[in-house]
Amino acid sequence: MALLSIHPLPQVSNFCVKAPRVFVNNSTSKRAENLKKPYSTKCRTMHDQVTHSMPPEKIEIFNSLENWASENVLVYLKPVEKCWQPQDFLPDPNSDGFYEQIKEMQGRAKEVPDDYFVVLVGHMITEEALPTYQTMLNTFDGVRDETGTSPTSWATWTRAWTAEENRHGDLLNKYLYLSGRVDMRAVEKTIQYLIGSGMDPKGENNPYLGFIYTSFQERATFVSHGNAARLAKQQGDLKLAQICGLIAADEKRHENAYSKIVQKLFEIDPDTTMLAFADMMRKKISMPAHLMYDGRDSNLFDHFAAIAARLGVYSARDYADVMEHLVNYWEVEKLTGLSPEGRKAQEFVCGLPRRIKIIEEKAQDRAKQAPSLPLSWVYDREVSL
Ligand SMILES: [Fe+2]
Ligand SMILES: [Fe+2]
Questions:
Q1: Of 97, 205, 208, 365, which has the fewest Cβ atoms less than 10 A away?
Q2: 168 annotated as ligand-binding
């Protein structure tokens, strides 16, 4: 993610069997031109875009896992009737006490500082760009929803996962609207820009890379919503803590599902999975909302990420912890029978969390007094980075 100050290590793609490349121009005049076209991601994606890097014969692996996925992945979905809905945690517009409840909610929100609201807005905007994530899942070869109602386990998961995720943005959006603390028009503009820009996870239509990305991301969102819940509790807003905690619990369930898929891939195709894990780590996991823009601040994501790190919601240290967790969960250190490249990838991945932590500690020692800047989401009030 953008917070990491490590330099990307040399990139070796081990998947480029059939990899048409799109060259992205990075000249100064192009960049200036692209700033006028904020939906364009060209000014911020400086790498060759690789597509369809999984050898076509590997699609058979995902077809053969159809029943396995039905029994081992779909079980992580919750039946709709047992799911919470945003309305369970919001004032009921049909009740007599509606306005009283909003007043009480706004009273609690008054005690919460602006920087915390900026983080919550960042979380909400990330959740609201859900159309992009469903699109992204449907770029993966061998597991995409081919029709929109495909009955395969992979497609069933993607649709139901999307439907579960949709509640997160809805709840946070309505909460933030009713809190009266944020400039909803500026926030809504940011969402529109973000969905228009898309995302660049470097998944190459490759489900090996893609499911490693989603495992990482679900864990990262579990950590950040969980920390947001902890801070809300410290600030005395127990209802907000409950909202963030519920979302974190969903993310954890999703993390379990995606991690199970990758665990299975390690079991049946360890070398390819090992190389994919190393490849994703070399490229670094970009956050889903890394292209966010509010029409004004072209470093908006970095500013949001800096505030989230300063508050202890999500930092480079968490990034390293997520990686370490996955290395342990997939028992990467214990893998045997790998090719020489696979062993190199294994060594690289196993040593990476420790290296990131060392670099991060040094960066923290060098950290200067944080500057502050006005942010559109909180009516241009100054917030320290
Ligand atoms: Fe979510
Ligand atoms: Fe999620």
A1: 365
A2: yes
CA of 165 to the centre of ligand 2 (A): 6
Identify the pLDDT of residue 196.
97
What confidence tens digit (pLDDT) does each residue in 217-241 have? Answer: 999 999 999 999 999 999 999 999 9
Q: Coil, helix or strand for 374?
A: strand
**What does pLDDT average to over the chain?**
89
385 vs 53: CA distance, rounded Å: 39
Alpha-carbon span 349 to 196, nearest angstrom: 34
The DSSP line for 222-257 is HHHHHHHHHHHHHTT-HHHHHHHHHHHHHHHHHHHH
Q: How many helices (H) and strands (E) does the chain have?
A: 14, 4
Q: How far is the CA of 95 from the centre of ligand 2 (A)?
A: 32
Furthest-apart CA atoms within the chain: distance in Å: 69
Please say whether the beta carbons of 231 and 313 come within 8 A.
yes
Domains annotated on the chain, with CATH? 67-263+285-315 (1.10.620.20)
Task: Consult the annotation and say whether 7 binds a ligand.
Answer: no
Tell me if 218 is assigned to a ligand binding site. Answer: yes
Residues annotated catalytic, as ranges: 84, 127, 165, 168, 218, 221, 250-251, 254
- Which pTM value belongs to this model? 0.89
Instruction: Name the amino acid, one letter, at 111.
Output: E
**Residue 245 and residue 198: Cα distance in Å, rounded?**
27
